[in-house]
Amino acid sequence: MNEKISDVKTNATKKGLIVRLIKDGTVIDHIPPGKGIKIAELLNLFNQDSVVIIGQNLESTKYGKKDIIKVENRFLKSEEYNKISLIAPYATINIIKNYVIQEKKKVVIPDVLEDVALCNNANCISNKEPVPSRLYVLNKNPLTVVCYYCGYEFSGENIKLKT
Amino acid sequence: MKERFVKRDIISIKDFTREELDFIIKTAEKIEKEGYNRNLLNGKCIGLLFYEPSTRTRLSFDTAAQLLGATTIWFAGIEGTSVMKGETLKDTIETVANYVDLIVLRHPYDGAARWAADITTNRMKRGHKKVPVVNGGDGKNEHPTQAMLDLYSIKKTQNRIDDLDIAIVGDLKYGRTVHSLAYALALYNCKIRFVAPEILQIPEHIEAYLKRRNVKFLKYSKIEEVISDVDIIYMTRIQKERFPDENEYNKVRGIFKLNRNILSKAKTTMRILHPLPRVDEISVDVDEDIRAYYFEQAGNGVPVRMALLSLILGDE
């Protein structure tokens, strides 16, 4: 945290960063390749004035390839962490203040998804009337959920998030 | 045990323990054998909100309530209600909860009863009395009070529920009575045989539920494969109204027919159950056979629903 801004910029150049640093905002790292755009859409990042940088298929020492999102002047709400966890369970959220990482958080799939995702049963009351959805997570890896209302169990692979 | 039922919502069989189901059965047996208090529910009013057609569930709840001294208000079908004007389930429940002490709800959407119960619970948090909700069938999901009377019928005919070999035949995909019965039988030590064409077999999520509980079950496509082995054959109607496409329905209509010829291979102690209504899956000439139990089964709806209403409202 005591790093000088000039050092941060120099180190970034040495590391060969192919996208620019952001001054204040959020970096979402370790997104599975190909899912970056989906997360950007989910967070409604395309409808704002700030800088948004999406890197696709970048090299990752941990996962081989990854996507990354950098967004300036935007900080995430807790329900947005939950949404990201369903698409990118291993994502890391870096909060940047004055070019320096202030906080690094891992997303965690919550035990209950309150009004975050839709039940996959088209005939469920939560898809038919104005009812807040509620899904209980039965298993985190692979993700399996069950609807609180209709008891329908389904795989997280097919989960549709509420927009 | 009694205290567990006071003001309780009855939404899914999965919410019950075996001890609780046994207690309901025992209470129904007591009502049938020893009689009941005709004034137990004096001054209580039961709301029967039936968004879908019903004969047995609605009339047996109505009978049960009146025998215990309660009055009933009801609608059967949404014609003539504000649902026709686009009223949501929430608004209807919020309104009717002012008039009644308990709501029995039948609704076309899966999970509607759970949502209705949440609405009356939230209402209680705002200072009103809790109005328990009883699921009288929600879409293709569950019909828990039918499963309770099915268990009661199995116990009455076979003197036990454990160690039985039970075939469930017909529309296992859309049949809500089948789903609730499968969840109920998962609490007993019996063998279940699901008999259906591939496209109407028991849903994957129910299969997964049974596997997690180590329930013994097998899948078949013909009645003839199981008829000589089973103690109970539970026939069901193909649920035409829940098929997304009529062509799909036409592929399976009339696929199963239990007739005297097939029945001749069954044990004499075997009993035929059916939640009714029947279309053509049981020949009418089977009705006279000693093994046909479905009309008596429908009659068992009254003591079982009396037991439930007594337990939920009787000890307030």
TrEMBL record, chain A:
Q: Would the keyword Endoplasmic reticulum be found if you checked this record's keyword annotation?
A: no
Top-down, what is the taxonomic lineage of the species of origin? Archaea, Thermoproteota
Keyword Ribosomal protein assigned: no
What family is reported? Belongs to the PyrI family.
As cofactor, the record names: Zn(2+)
Q: What is the recorded function of this protein according to its Swiss-Prot or TrEMBL entry?
A: Involved in allosteric regulation of aspartate carbamoyltransferase.
Which residue numbers delimit the Aspartate carbamoyltransferase regulatory subunit C-terminal domain? Answer: 114-159
Q: Quote one Gene Ontology molecular function term.
A: metal ion binding
Top-rank taxon, per record: Archaea
Entry keyword set = Metal-binding, Pyrimidine biosynthesis, Transferase, Zinc
- Specify the protein name: Aspartate carbamoyltransferase regulatory chain
Q: Which organism is it from?
A: Thermoproteota archaeon
GO terms under cellular component? aspartate carbamoyltransferase complex
Q: Where does Zn(2+) bind?
A: C119, C124, C147, C150
Subunit architecture: Contains catalytic and regulatory chains.
Boundaries of every Aspartate carbamoyltransferase regulatory subunit N-terminal domain copy? 18-107
The entry's free-text remark on the cofactor is: Binds 1 zinc ion per subunit.
Q: Which Pfam families match?
A: PyrI, PyrI_C
Biological processes, Gene Ontology terms: 'de novo' pyrimidine nucleobase biosynthetic process; pyrimidine nucleotide biosynthetic process
